[in-house]
Amino acid sequence: MKRRGTGVGCMFYGIGNTGLPNPAAAFVEVLPDTSVNVIVGAADIGQGSSTMAAAVAAETLGLAIENIHVTWADTQVAPEGGATSASRQTFITGNAVKNACTQAMGELRRTAAEKLEVPEEDLVFRNREIYSSKDETKRMTYPELMGAMSYRGRLAVGAGYYNPKTTYLNPADMSGVPYEVYSYATCILEVEVDTDTGEVTLLKCVSAHDVGTPINPKMVEGQIEGGTAMGTGFVISEKIDVDPKTLAIKNPTLSKYIIGTNMDMPEIYPIAVSSEGEAGPFGAKGLGEPALIPSIPATMAAIGNALGVTFTKTPIFPADIVKAWKDKQAAENQG
Amino acid sequence: MNKITVHCTVNHKPVSVEIEPNKRLLDMLRVNLGLTSVKEGCSEGECGACTVIYNGEPVTSCCILAGQAEGADIITLEGVSVDGKPDVVQQAFIESGAIQCGFCIPGMILTAEALLMKNPHPTMEQIKEAMSGNLCRCTGYKKIEEAVALAASRM
Amino acid sequence: MSKYAVLNTEFPKVDALERALGTAKYAADYFMPNMLYSGVFRSTVPHAYVKKLNLDKARALPGVAAVLDYTAIPGKNRFGIIVKDEPCLVDDKIRRYGDALAVVAAETQELVDEALELIEVEYEELTPVKSFEEAMAPGAPIVHGQTNVHAKKHLEFGNVDEAWDKCDVIVENTYSTHILSHMFIEPDAGLAYLDEQGVMNVIASTQNPHYDRNEVAAMLGIPMNRVRVKQATTGGGFGGKLDIGVQLHVALLAWHTRRPVKMVRSRTESTMVSSKRHPITMKCRTGATRDGKLVAVDVVMTCDAGAYGSYGPAVIGRAPVHIVGPYECPNVRCDAVFAYTNNPMCGAFRGFGVPQAAVCHEGQMNALAKALNMDPIELRLRNAHKVGTVIPTGQTLTESVGFTDTLLKAREKALEVMPEAMARLKTE
User: Fold this and answer.
1) Which 8-state DSSP code applies to residue A305?
2) C21 in contact with chain A, both atoms CB, cutoff 8 A
3) Please, which residues have CB within 8 angstroms of residue A291's CB and are 6 or more apart in sequence?
4) Per-residue pLDDT tens over the stretch B132-143
5) Are residues C259 and C120 in the same domain?
6) Torsion sign over Cα C219, C225, C228, C229
7) In sequence order, what DSSP letters do the residues of A177-190 get, joined into one string?
8) What is the DSSP string of C373-425?
9) Is residue C77 in some structural domain?
């Protein structure tokens, strides 16, 4: 018999290391032709920290993303980036890039203020132009500004770093400030369960994530979609088996450790939710791990909802489902 | 070990490669011909990262001995781009946000190319079916399928 | 005008083009003139002393450039992101299946494999510790040092013991999660060489280049600025490429051979020896008022962390802080113990214990919703973190708390795309 079920899963996730310093740094130089070198320590493993760094630099400097070249994760060139872990690079390296750009803009602001004859604090850098927020007719282009910089022998260089505002936790009770900022998420997922075979079909999934400010909507969606694939697989297909004698992993290959294919995916609706805050760069927060987490309890709950039973253990494989259903039938027949 | 000579067409050019008979097509392409877009992910034909277009079909090059490729017509990702510029499928993958770590992408793009060569206007179901042999651990596949559909719409 | 000129607009990833063209170079794609290939000789038992390790036959094989054991390490031989408890090459005892005993560099990969076959080892086997319970049992064999307790945490907030009287409903469950593997599609790989200035260069698939640099420097006994770690284009990690992988082994071989040395792990080796997700058992008691406000949460958390610490201390630090989930609760206690065993090493895996914690807190919220006959989303909304919430560490949340919005927006979208499924949420 095929039965459908729905589950809700929520989570929060503290960005960066728990109650520990975990700084990251960036270098920035705006070149005479308005192209920019941004150098960060952060390793990009495909999640997009380098693209994030380019976007934060472009936004801060008032340039286009095409103007930015990012070099990353070369220790003889790039400053400390810390680990690409704990969903920390958007928040921490992002803030470091913003700080480095802000430093580089010191000379840019001074020069633009001199040329436009307006106070530095009134200047807006946006879309390759610099203008006064008080009088938008007072404006210049970025190439003009860099020309003025060259004439004066000034360089637009910056180094910045960021360390989240946390405290060490009290070893007695873990009190303190473990993280500066948290990401949040809610996932609602629908499954169909075959009670005879135990097979689970993932039908639809809505996953809404508070990312503060989305840096790049497609990258946000991509994280949520990929995280959902991994989170649902966590529950229904993935498991490491350890040989009880040698304690070796018995299934170290992709034919024996089953990750989902495209045919196994639910119809997924990712949602980026914004929230107001100053901690992250332009309010942005981490998403890498949050993208995974809520689909795990949501899948467990949905399978449970379909059968009318409660699962408290992972994984939930077909044999577990068939057994749970039979046990339930037996209990009902007795009752 | 005595070497054999394999004659085949790789990326539209005839090649002959001297190679040990126990080497796989994957090794020949990566090591002997320097075509490192062909990736080794699982070595057992499961993940599809080493996919090449082999006589018009997407096949995993880790499961074929080099010697078997005698006379074959083989296309790798290096043979898809035009003068170092992305073709329509590659461009669609970029625009759709289909690329995260990218290790599965050569196989994904070649599988899509093979599909679109035979069927330039596939339905979403046909796209899903065609792409189902390639594993991705990052994206959840949605944007990859969207990329193939976008490429098809531009064919 | 939009608030941002660049953010939240459509633009391609800065590194998408080379990945679409296939020109992006992953670690295994590097080839250098005069380059050696390499491999690792690993233990096939989980807990043992090495009585004899005979490298002579392997060394005698023509085309083999180096066969090294721990005695070849010029600097330190203990590594780990938090606790330095893992050897580059085993020097005292084997603690898991797959521990590295020796490394080989040779002219071809075939010669490497042949040389590995020629290495002979004799073990003096010890009783392996196979589970958390075995690790904690009196008289258990000790995996590291004096105790099998890898880490302990105690979180205490409010007064849990006095809170139960204020609860109208109490639910108790034990949750457990299993061991999982990252299965990044690119197996670990790296290459090391000394450059013309004598700097040790390591190009690797990694999530952690600066940490790798520091560990390579410590292993070779040279200053950090004499090591350059460059991340190659990396085919996923998910936490599994945070621990140091091939980097130490290729650096050691390049140091001794003065030639570039490359190492590419097979899928099997990569999965065998990289870290795994911590399996965690959580015994949880949750109390609430009849209108669904959380009053108390009490959790006992135990975990078999495997043979080495890796990111275990980060997981045990993070899981208790997240154990209630994104909900207000004035009384919380969590006691956590992680044990060393001879099982596969657990470490960082996307979420650092929070996925496991979420299995517990969401299971409890659903159990409460059922006990109270309440809509599960409504129950969550009633307890949701908001600006001003004090979390169980005593921290007050001051900004950027978008949880309620995620609940409302997810519900709104779900009602649109799966209305029947939403109706089913309330019926069990």
Assistant:
1) H
2) no
3) A185, A207, A209, A223, A224, A226, A227, A228
4) 999 999 999 999
5) yes
6) positive
7) ---S-EEEEEEEEE
8) T--HHHHHHHHB--TTPBPTTSPBP-S---HHHHHHHHHHHHHHH-HHHHHHT
9) yes
C281 has a chain A CB within 8 A of its CB: no
Closest CA relative to residue A74, chosen from A38, A39, A29: A39
**Prior bond of A217 cis (ω within 30°):** no
Contacts of A254 in chain B (CB under 8 A): 41-42, 44, 46-47, 135
Last residue of a domain, one of C239, C273, C307: C273
In this prediction, residue B48 has a pLDDT band, given cuts at 50, 70 and 90, of very high
Nearest by CB to A261, which of B100, B135, B139?
A: B135
The domain containing residue C244 runs over which residues?
A: 18-125+183-273
Same-domain check for residues C161 and C198: no
Strand order in the sheet with C200-204: C64-68, C100-106, C36-42, C261-264, C189-194, C200-204, C227-231
- Cβ of B132 under 8 Å from any chain A Cβ? yes
Distance CA A138, CA A194 (A): 69
The whole-angstrom separation of Cα A40 and Cα C209 is 11
Sign of CA dihedral C377, C381, C385, C387: positive
Q: What is the DSSP string of A74-112?
A: BTTTSPP---S-TT-HHHHHHHHHHHHHHHHHHHHHHHH
Give one DSSP letter per residue of C34-96, joined into a string: TPEEEEEEE-SSSSEEEEEEE-HHHHHSTTEEEEE-GGG-SS---B-SSS--B-SS-SSEE-S
Q: Which residues contact B70 (CB under 8 A, 6 or more apart)?
A: B6, B7, B8
| Domains located in chain A, CATH noted | 2-14+180-334 (3.30.365.10), 24-162 (3.30.365.10)
What does the alpha-carbon distance between residue C426 and residue A142 come to, in Å, rounded to a whole number?
A: 58
Confidence of residue A335 (pLDDT cuts 50, 70, 90): confident
For the segment A76-103, what is each residue's pLDDT rounded down to a tens digit? 999 999 999 999 999 999 999 999 999 9
Residue whose tokens read 């059968």: A307
Size of chain C, expressed as the number of residues it contains? 428
Whole-angstrom distance, CA of residue A122 vs CA of residue A134: 7
Handedness of CA C10, A72, C185, B35 (dihedral sign): positive
Strands (E), C220-279: 227-231, 261-264
Residue whose structure tokens are 């008289």 = C139
Q: SS in 3 state form for A290-301?
A: CCCCCHHHHHHH
Per-residue confidence (pLDDT) for residue C427, from 0 to 100: 53
Closest CA to A250 of A258, A259, A241: A241
- Write down which chains contact chain B via at least 3 CB pairs under 8 A: A, C
C291 and C411 housed in the same domain = yes
CA distance A167 to chain B (A): 33
Nearest to A13 by CA among A277, A298, A294, A295: A294
Structural domains of chain B ordered from first start: 4-79 (3.10.20.30), 88-153 (1.10.150.120)
Whether A289 is catalytic is: yes
C359 shares a domain with C253: no
Q: Do residues C207 and C60 both lie within one domain?
A: yes
Phi-psi domain of A162 (left: phi exceeds 0; alpha: psi -120 through 50; beta: other):
beta
Last residue of a domain, one of C220, C252, C273: C273
Given this model, what pLDDT does residue C426 score?
75
Full strand arrangement of the beta sheet holding A200-212 = A2-14, A182-194, A200-212, A267-274
Q: What are phi and psi of A79, to 5 degrees?
A: -75, 175
Average pLDDT over residues A21-50: 98
Which pair of tokens denotes residue A224? Answer: 């949520």
Q: Check whether residue C110 and residue C172 sit in a common domain.
A: no
Q: With an 8 Å Cβ cutoff, is C23 touching chain B? A: yes
